[in-house]
Design brief:
The structure is a homodimer of 415-residue chains. Chain A has 415 residues and is of the alpha/beta class. Chain A folds into 2 domains: 235 residues, Aldehyde Dehydrogenase, Chain A, domain 1; 150 residues, 3-Layer(aba) Sandwich (Aldehyde Dehydrogenase, Chain A, domain 2), CATH 3.40.309.10. Chain A has 15 helices and 16 strands. In chain A, α12 links the parallel β9 and β10. In chain A, α2 runs antiparallel to α5, α5 packs parallel to α6 and α10 crosses α11. The termini of chain A are far apart. β13 of chain A pairs parallel with β16 of chain B. Chains A, B: Keywords: Amino-acid biosynthesis, Cytoplasm, NADP, Oxidoreductase, Proline biosynthesis.
């Protein structure tokens, strides 16, 4: 192994200490310069990307599409940096404060996390997006992207580092791991003391690998087995629009619905409408026995695995439930704690669902598709946390910070 | 293995869902009843404790002391539950909220974490303290205490569970792992999906084992290599009182000072006073060359390891530094990110220290001994977090909660 991860970690820590003290206007100035530099270097970025694409030509079309950069996409990525520039700086905010018994002033102040480790797949946009967000929140970042994007990532990071250097900042705020073996990735996940948090972004498999192998704290993101529950009292027209949107507007994303639960009292009326509407999108319905009884040929019989599957595709599991309680139990048993919605006009049932369903985001009469940083209004997101520690749901800039107690006295000692 | 950890986890999850809905008054009522039950069962608890003590009689005196319960200690433990009862309930608090572009009301509400796993040593008081705090924050808890306290822990948990059962609650809110092998402990640390967070409490070795082995999210607590820095402009009388308090008031705890840094301009005047004052407590001083030059026989020469050692004893490492910058660099290189203090009358230096030192708690002109939940005024604590994720510094009840986005609409779909 030629790569010295501890050395990278040490450099990142030092760079992070300097960056933590940088005022907001200076950070914003640099974000604008980075955006500018990406646009100016569009041609060389595309040239590097061509090398990666040449290697990847036998891979799946959707994979290659995510890997591909062109001038328009580079413009989008540069715009992303300008959006981050426009966000309020989370650093320095006082969350709370008080004076204790001994007369000490105790203030809880937002500070950067320090060094963030990003592990992701062959999506070069993540390289810049994550760097921009980490930078604005005052963190150094060590990036480990998918090996298929290595030439592109090298070029992108080289450009961002050059901007830092040209402006008198430590370029080690951004570092890329250029040795993409699993062995190095594993060591990266165990760099305790050098990295404050690891954020994996990508497939469920990637995220699970990181959760299993890492000894550094991880924020688990992404997997979404989301449910739409249509209650007895639901406005069925509204319910139809919501399931259509939640399933079909963009089936490949984590906040798309994967299972529809329908109260038995409205199943016979509602399910044929669902089959009709989703039929236009060629959605495959996988129903329980009752659903199949109602829908006949329009549905195939689901098996137990369907309740736990995130299809990310034009497939929907459907189940008829006897009661709200059964719906809540089904969701809490099978969901990934991401986003769940109830469609109802019954206030009591709405409150029960919102209180009892265990998920980062619980909705009343709205599509699950709103679970993301932009739709929420957070401005941008580094991911959607499906764990309960530190951050839950869409993570904006504040999720990339921690707090520090600043305590001022005049000689107090403990009695 | 006779123990079914998954089954315990499933039971805990179910119990947690019920507990999450319990109103504050009911939780408080039950905490009072648990305190009462402990007092009433004092004799049987002591009898169980006698069995553990009989097995432990050849172990270190300090170990046996921590294991021992008597009527007074049981009273203290019961009082601890009443203190938790008196704390405000963190559940249900709305942290923030807004209406987004689409007209959805988005509210971020405090909810319990769910299931907390506690791993700790042979200190039976932790069994009750942790149970009380988790209960008040609406969490089920699975306890894994040191094997030397097994008989005592069994009895304590039996008493607490009986109170729950007698009051119509699920006793599986509190569960004890009664098989204390390392194999079972390791499996417990990897119960992803069943446990939402693991909190280890105890020695640095225990905590490091959990950090290394766990795949469940961990909150790292405890280790404290804390520094007192005496600046050039310090009030030396104040500085003397602070180092005396930080080192000697209770040397065995994590917020005690382990290293004294002194600006070279005041070292000759200050260090003999330190030797004099700490000499009364027979504190061993381990100094750098400059310190030894000033103190002669009153100090032994430190080696590099001393800067990284948490003595938890009447030993203090001492170093003369050339500047504030050197002091900050020393601290950021060697500290465990716990608690650090500067003694100074220089406002600029004070601000630099508070801004640039990387620790959960940074102090100006006060003893590091204030870093704990009670001294802070949080009422009680589940531990002191030395990591940056989720919670940092003394963790009160809020650290045992997470948030949930509750989103209400009237048919909104994503465009």
């Amino acid at each position: 192994m030629t790569l010295d991860l501890e050395m990278m970690g040490t450099k990142a820590r030092q760079a992070a200490y300097d960056l933590a003290l940088l005022p907001t206007t200076k950070k914003n100035e640099l974000l604008a310069k980075m955006a500018q530099a990406l646009l100016e270097n569009s041609a060389v970025i595309c040239a590097a990307n061509e090398k990666d694409l040449a290697q990847a030509k036998d891979l799946k079309a959707s994979f290659v599409d995510r890997l591909r950069l062109d001038e328009d996409r580079i413009k989008e990525i540069a715009n992303g940096l300008l959006q981050v520039k426009a966000l309020p700086d989370p650093i320095g905010k006082i969350d709370t404060g008080w004076v204790n018994e001994a007369g000490l002033q105790i203030v809880k102040r937002r500070v950067p996390l320090g060094v963030v480790g990003m592990i992701y797949e062959a999506r070069p946009n993540v390289t810049v997006d994550a760097s921009g967000l980490c930078f604005k929140a005052g963190n150094a970042v060590i990036l480990r992207g998918g090996k298929e994007a290595l030439a592109t990532n090298k070029k992108l990071v080289e450009i961002l580092r050059a901007v830092l250097e040209a402006n008198g900042l430590d370029p080690n705020i951004f570092q890329l791991i250029t040795e993409t073996s699993h062995h190095v990735a594993e060591k990266f996940m165990q760099l305790n003391g050098y990295i404050d948090v690891l954020i994996p972004r990508g497939s469920a498999r990637l995220i699970q690998t990181v959760v299993q192998k890492a000894t550094v704290p991880v924020i688990e993101t992404g997997a979404g087995n989301c449910h739409v529950y249509v209650d007895q009292s639901a406005d069925l027209q509204m319910a139809l629009k919501i399931i259509e949107n939640a399933k079909c507007q963009r089936p490949s994303v984590c906040n798309a619905a994967e299972t529809l639960l329908v109260h038995q009292a409205v199943a016979e009326e509602f399910l044929p409408k669902v089959a009709d509407t989703l039929g236009k999108y060629h959605v495959e319905l996988r129903g329980d026995a009752k659903t199949c009884e109602i829908l006949g040929d329009a549905s195939v019989l689901a098996d137990e695995r369907d309740w736990d599957t995130e299809y990310n595709d034009y497939i929907l599991a459907v189940r008829v439930v006897d009661s709200l309680t059964d719906a809540i139990t089904h969701i809490n048993t099978h969901n990934t704690k991401h986003s769940e919605t109830i469609v109802t006009n019954d206030q009591t049932n709405a409150q029960r669902f919102l209180n009892e369903v265990d998920a980062a985001c619980v909705y009343l009469n709205a599509s699950t598709r709103f679970t993301d940083g932009f739709a929420f209004g957070l401005g941008a997101e580094i991911g959607i946390s499906t764990q309960k520690l530190h951050a839950r749901g869409p993570m904006g800039l504040e999720a990339l910070t921690t707090t520090k107690y600043v305590i001022t006295g005049n000689g107090q000692i403990r009695q």
